[in-house]
Inverse folding.
């Protein structure tokens, strides 16, 4: 459920982008756009605006429920507001295409720095209440997240700017939008499952019971 909430703005971006034509043709929103603007630009601007609004709703909803806000959500909100705002203002999709890479690389830096600053790494802080692991495994686990975030950022750059450059602009943008949802979500799910399988060998009966009690 939490993963779905985290991907809420991305899901709405995906839906809005692919339904932009129907939205602009059948609602008053279409009056906000110049008819001479390319279809791909209209779709990108509309989807970006929806994603920014969705990010604000995401943060507000989380705060109303928990009376606190995750730093990840705040940073993502600031990033999509700035880069998305530039995309809308200048009509250049490249800025919003950089957002997943910047976000993932900032996370990679945060996880890496946490390993050398403070009493424990970010992974240790997030998971130590659920499972007990040797210090060496916590370090390995934290570094695996660093690698994952770096690879995800590189994958986004490749799909956005280097994949199938011989194709037309709309096809390439469609491919990136699809990758932004299904590709990055798929990478995340595969990584989480692989991590769970790796951790299973270190789980004790007490850890298993505690996980059961938390579900």
């Amino acid at each position: 459920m939490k993963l779905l909430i985290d991907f809420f703005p991305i899901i709405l971006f995906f839906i809005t982008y692919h339904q932009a034509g129907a939205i602009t043709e059948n609602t008053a929103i279409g009056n906000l756009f110049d008819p001479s603007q390319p279809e791909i630009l209209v779709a990108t601007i509309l989807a970006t605006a929806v994603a920014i609004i969705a990010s604000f709703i995401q943060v507000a909803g989380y705060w109303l429920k928990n009376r606190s806000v995750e730093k990840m959500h705040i940073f993502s909100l600031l990033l999509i507001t700035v880069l998305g705002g530039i995309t809308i203002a200048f009509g250049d999709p490249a800025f919003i295409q950089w957002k997943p890479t910047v976000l993932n690389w900032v996370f990679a830096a945060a996880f890496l720095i946490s390993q050398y600053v403070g009493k424990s790494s970010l992974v240790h802080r997030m998971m130590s209440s659920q499972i007990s692991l040797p210090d060496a495994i916590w370090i390995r686990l934290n570094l695996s997240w660093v690698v994952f975030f770096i690879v995800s950022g590189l994958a986004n750059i490749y799909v956005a700017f280097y994949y199938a450059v011989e194709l037309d602009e709309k096809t390439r943008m469609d491919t990136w939008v699809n990758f932004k949802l299904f590709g990055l979500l798929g990478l995340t799910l595969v990584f989480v499952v692989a991590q769970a399988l790796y951790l299973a060998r270190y789980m004790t009966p007490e850890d298993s019971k505690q996980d059961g009690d938390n579900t």
Notes: The chain has two domains: 1-92, 93-203. Residues 130 and 211 are 6 Å apart (CA to CA). The first helix runs from residue 2 to 6. The chain has ten helices and no strands.
